[in-house]
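Researcher: Batch entry, complex prediction.
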Amino acid sequence: SKFGEYGGQYVPEALMPAIEELDDAYRRYVLENEDGFVDEFRERLRDFGGRPTPLQRADRLSERYDTDLFLKREDLLHGGAHKLNNALGQVLLAKYMGKERIVAETGAGQHGTATAMAAAHLDVPCEIYMGERDINRQRPNVFRMRLNGAAVNPVTTGRGTLKEAISETMRDWATTVETTHYVIGSVVGPHPFPTMVREFQSVISEEARRQFDDQVGGLPDSVVACAGGGSNTMGAFSRFVSDESVDLYAVEAGGSSLAVDEEEGVAPNSASLSTGTEGVLHGARTKLLQDRDGQIVESHSVSSGLDYAGVGPELAYLVDEGRVTPVTVDDDAALEGFHRLSQTEGIIPALETAHAVAWLEQATSEQLGDSVVVCVSGRGDKDLESVIEETASREIPNAPDMDVFSGGMR
Amino acid sequence: SKFGEYGGQYVPEALMPAIEELDDAYRRYVLENEDGFVDEFRERLRDFGGRPTPLQRADRLSERYDTDLFLKREDLLHGGAHKLNNALGQVLLAKYMGKERIVAETGAGQHGTATAMAAAHLDVPCEIYMGERDINRQRPNVFRMRLNGAAVNPVTTGRGTLKEAISETMRDWATTVETTHYVIGSVVGPHPFPTMVREFQSVISEEARRQFDDQVGGLPDSVVACAGGGSNTMGAFSRFVSDESVDLYAVEAGGSSLAVDEEEGVAPNSASLSTGTEGVLHGARTKLLQDRDGQIVESHSVSSGLDYAGVGPELAYLVDEGRVTPVTVDDDAALEGFHRLSQTEGIIPALETAHAVAWLEQATSEQLGDSVVVCVSGRGDKDLESVIEETASREIPNAPDMDVFSGGMR
Amino acid sequence: MSRLDEAFADGPAFVPYLALGDPDLESSLEYVRALDRGGADVIELGLPFSEPIAEGPTIQSAVVRSLSGGMTPTKFFDAVETLDVDAPLVCMTYYNLVYQFGGSEARSASEDASGGTASEGAGPRPFVERAAEVGIEGFVVPDLPAEEAGPLREACDEFGLDLIFIVAPTTRGERLERIMERTSGYVYVQARLGVTGAKADVSDQTGASLDRLDRWDLPKAVGFGISSGEQAREVVAAGADGVIVGSALVDIVAEGTSAASQTASGDVAEGHENGDSTEAVADRLETLARELKRGALAGAERAQSERT
Amino acid sequence: MSRLDEAFADGPAFVPYLALGDPDLESSLEYVRALDRGGADVIELGLPFSEPIAEGPTIQSAVVRSLSGGMTPTKFFDAVETLDVDAPLVCMTYYNLVYQFGGSEARSASEDASGGTASEGAGPRPFVERAAEVGIEGFVVPDLPAEEAGPLREACDEFGLDLIFIVAPTTRGERLERIMERTSGYVYVQARLGVTGAKADVSDQTGASLDRLDRWDLPKAVGFGISSGEQAREVVAAGADGVIVGSALVDIVAEGTSAASQTASGDVAEGHENGDSTEAVADRLETLARELKRGALAGAERAQSERT
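Model: C-alpha cells for the complex:
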C-alpha cells in the first residue's frame, strides 16, 4: 500500500472498513480475475470503450522533431479521454462488490462524464459532486452527466471547485459507505486507489508497448504524458517502468509561473512533482503544493484538468527514484502546443494533452531519442471555449485568426 | 454510373472533364489499388481514424426490445462521426490525383470538420463553404475547422444554409476545377460521387458483417441506419445488400409532419425516400422534396445533419427495388430516442443517430427479427445545445429535468 | 434553318439574358421589350430554379427575386405567350423544371391508380410542347450534359425547337464531338471557367475555344463575363458569331430594384425622382444593349477587314 | 493517569469543540472561556486545515472563517499559551499540519544543503513538542488512522500527551483492537456514519458501539450529532462516559457572526442591540454548555439508578 514513503491511507476511521473491503475486492476481482471480472472488463473496454486505441505515427511532427513520433490515441476512447478506462473498471468493480450506488467528484467534468457514462452503461445509480463554480464553467459536461441519468450535486462550500467537491464526496461516502462506492478519478487518494486506478489505466501502456513492437520493433526511447493527478501518466508509463532504456517524462502545468505566492496562498501552476513538497492530502502522502504551515495552496493551470495541488503517490515516488523525469510547460506554450497538433496532425487535443505536445518543442533531441510515444490523453472539444478566450487574451504566434469568434462560441 | 434510372451526371459542362478525371482516378486508385492507395487509406483509417470501431451489444436495449441488439459505434471514429471515412478517402485520393487544394461544403459542420481534419492530417490546403446562418448556429464546428487550419468561407446568398453552400462550392469548383478537388460529403452529387462515397463508407458494413459473424455467428436479421443524404446508411447497408435475409431499414427525419406545404414551399420533414418524388438535384437524378413545379422545397429536421431535400440515388433505387425499407421518425420521437440511448447505454448519440434508435421503439418484432445492427453514426456532443432548446420546448417524457439549463449552455 | 440560326445570319448577334419575373413579372416584360428595342438578335429568358448551381451571385440573386415574386413555369409560359418582340426567344432553365412540368396531373393520376406510390416527372415532352405553343425557339439547360440530353433532344426535334449546349474551355476531344452532334441553333461558348458574372477582361481561353470549334458551321455565341461594348467587340473580333450578356444587364435591374426598395420605405415620389421607375431601368437596359450591339458590329468589321 | 482521564473520573464529561480563530482569534478565545465557565470537562480546540474532509458543512464553514482570519499553527499555539481555563485542552487538526510544523526551517536548511531538492516535513515531533509547551494535553487527528499513527504516538509518549482515536460504527474486530491499543486519554466514539454535524436524534448505532467497547476501561466520549441536553442525557444513559459537542456550538458562533456581519453594513449600534456582540454569543454558548452538561449528568444518574 506504499510507494516508498508515499501513499498510505490517511482517511477518517469510518472509511477504513470500506477501504479494506475495496482492497480485498481489488485483489480478488482485478488481480485474480474472480468471477471473470477481468474478462468482462476487457470485453466492455473493447466493445463499449473502443479499445484498443491506435498508436499513430505523427508524420509531420516526426519530421519537425527529427524523431519517430507516435501518438497513443486515448482521445478516441468513448467519452473523449482516457478517463473511461478507470471509471468503467471501478463501476464494474462496484457491481461485483454488490454496491448499489456510485458517487464521484469532478472538477473539469471529465471524470464525472466518464463515470456517468459507465454507470448508465452498467445500470448503477450515480451521483456526481461538482463545485458550483465548476458547474458554471463546464456546462456541457454537466449536461452530458445529466443526459446519462446521473444526479449532479452542486457543492457551494468554499470556492466551489474540485477541492471542495472531493471533500463533499468523501463526506457522502463516509455516510453511505456500506452501500456506496466512491469512484476516485485519478491515481490519488488512499490505498488501494492509486494502485487500482493505475492498473485500470495501464491498458494504455500495455497496448502502446505491444503496438510499438508490432509497428516499429522493440521499445521506444521515451514516453511523454501530461501529469495532473497522474492517471494518464501512470497509465502511459506503467508497463514501461521496468524497461530501463525507456525515458519517462511527466509534463506538468507550469501555469503562469513556478513560484508560490505564500501571502495569497496561491501557486500559479500545478507542478507538484517539479516544485511540490511532501505532505498528506486526500488520503495519501505525496508531493503537494502547500505553504510552509502545510495548508494546501490554490493551484492554477489553463487546463482545468491539470489544476490540482496534489499528484499520485506512485509518481512522486518514481520521480524521487529518478525513474520519471518531471518537466513543466507554461500556459502560453501549452496553447501553442494545442494549435500545433490541431494544425499539423488534424487532432484537436485536450488542453491537458497540449502540455505533453508542447513539451516536445522544448525537449532536447537527446531527451526524445530516436522514437517517442506521446499519450494523447483526450480530445479538445471540451476546451474550445477556453481556448478561444485564452488565445484571444495572449500572443500565441501559431493561433488562427480569432476575429470571427470575438463574441465567443454563441 | 446509374442505379436504375437514378444517378447520372447533371452538372455544368465545365465540370464534366473533372468528373471524368475523378471517375478515372476512382477506378484506378480505389478499385484497382494503384500505387497502393487502398493500403494507405486502410492504414490511415486504422491509425488516424481509430478503425475498426466496435460492434457493441446493447444489453439494456436488447432486453427492452427482446432481440439481440448491436450498435455499430461510428461515434468513436476520430471527429465523432462516420464522416471521416469518406473525407479521409477523398482527400487522400485528391493527393494521389495531384490536386493542390480541397473545397467542401458543410451544413451542420460535421462534414466540414471531418474534411478539415483529413486535410490537416494530409497537409492539403482546405476551404470550407458554409452558410452564414449555419455558421452562427454551429460555432463549435466552425472553430474546429479553423483550428485545423481550414478557411471557412461564409455564404451569404439566399437563406445561408446547406443548399446555398453546395451551390457556392460548385461555383468555386467550376472556376478552379483543374487544381482543386471538391470533397462531397454524402452519397449524393454526380457520378462517381455516390458510388465512391458509398465505397469509402462501406467499411462500416464490412466490419459490422465480420464482427457480427465473429461475435454471434451468421448474419443479423436487420440493419437500421438513419438517412439524410445517406452516407452512413449506404455505408451500413452496402455489404448486406446481397444478403437477402437481412432487412435494411433507412430511418428518415419525419420532422413535425410528413405533409408538404406547397404555399410556403416547405416540407417540415426530410423524408425524401418516404415522401419524395423523382427529380434532378445537385448533379443526380434521385428522390426529392419538391413542389409540383419542380422547385426544391425547404426541408426540416430537429437534426440539422438530416436536413436535406435530396437523398443518395442508390438509396432511392434500393427503395424502389424493395430492398431497403424507408421509415420515418418525427422530431419528438427522435428526442426521446436521444435520451433513451444516453440513459440506458451511456452513449450520447448525434441527433441523426437518435432517429435510428428511436425507430426501434415503433418497429414491430417481426421487423427487428432476432438480431439487429443499429448504426450509431455519430456522437451527440455537437447537439447538446439543440437538445437543451428542443427538449425544453416540448413534452419529452423521458428527458432529464432541464431547469438547471434554463439559461442555455453558458 | 431555324429562327435562331437566322438571327446569326446577318452579322454578329447580340444575345442578352434576363430572368423573367425579376423583380416582378410586369417590369421584367418591360425590360425584355427594351432589350428588343436595343437591338437584341436573340433573347435568353431565364425561368428561375431554386438551386441555380451554374450561376454566379448576380444571376442567383435575380433568381431569388423572381421566385419571391411568385414566378412559376406556368406563369412563365403564359407571360411569354403575351410577349410581342422581334427577337426569337430562348428559355434558359435547369433540368428539374423541364422534367417535372406537366407532372402534377400525371402524378395525381398515378397516385390515384397505384394508391399513393411516388410518381415520376412527366419528362421533358410537356414542357417542350408548351414552350413551342407560346413561341419559344430553343433551350439552354446548364445542368444537362449531352450524355443525359436524349429525351429533351427528341422532344425538341418533335416540336422543331433548338437545344443549345454549352461548351466549356475544358471541353475537348470526344466530349466536344458528342456535344456538337447534339447542339442546334447555336453553341454557347463559355468564355472562362467558373460561373456567370460580369468581368472586366476577356479571357484568353475564348480564342482557344473558338479555334477548337472552327470546323463546325453552327453559330458560336460567347458568354460568361461580357459586360461592355469593348468586350463585345473583342470577342467578335476573335471570331465569335455572337455575344451573350447576362450579369451586366441583371446588375442594372438589381440596382434599380434595390434603389426602389430603399426608397419604398421613404417617400415614394423620390423613387421616381431618382429615376428608378421601371421605365428608367428599361431605358438603361436599352442603352447598354445598344452599346453591346455596336461593339459586336465593330468587332465583326474588324474581323472582316482582317480577313480581307 | 493523564489530565484527560481525570476529567472523566468524577462522572460524565462534557467535551465541547470550537475552531480557534472563528470568526477571529479574540472572540474565539472569549468563547472558549465561556465553555469553560459553562462546565466543560475537556475542550477540543480545532486548528483549521484547508481540506477538512471529515467535517460537515457547519465545521467546514468555521474552518473557512478561521483561515480567512489568518489563523496558523504558530498563532494557534501562541494563543493557547495565553489561555487560562480550567478544562484540559485537546487539539483537533489534520495530519498535514502536524507533519509540516517546524518544517519550514528544516526545509530551508535542507534546501541550502542539497541545492534545492524537495524536502520533507519535519515530522510530528516539533508539533507535539510545541503543543506540550503551551499546555495542550492531547490530539484528535481525524485523517490519521491507527496504521499510520506510529510517529505521532511516539512523539506523544515522549512528551506525555494523549492521542485520541476515533472509533466508527463500522470499526470492529481486529481494527478495533489495533485502535484501542494505541488510544490514550479517551476514545472518541463516532455516533453515526458520516461527518460532523448537529442532528435531532441519537443514533441506534451508538449503543452497539458502546457495547463493543465495553471491555476497555478507557473513557468513551460519544460525538457526532449531539445538539441538546436531552440527547446528551440519552447518550450517557446508554453508557457513554462523556459527550462531545461541536456543530451545535459552532452554529451559535456562525449565527452571531452572520448577524454581526449583516448589521456591520448598517448601524453598528444595532448589532449590539440585537445582542450579537462577542459577549452575547459567549453568553449563549455558556447557556448551551450548561444545558449539555446537565443533560450528561442526568443521563449518568439514570444509568446509575438502572445499575442499582
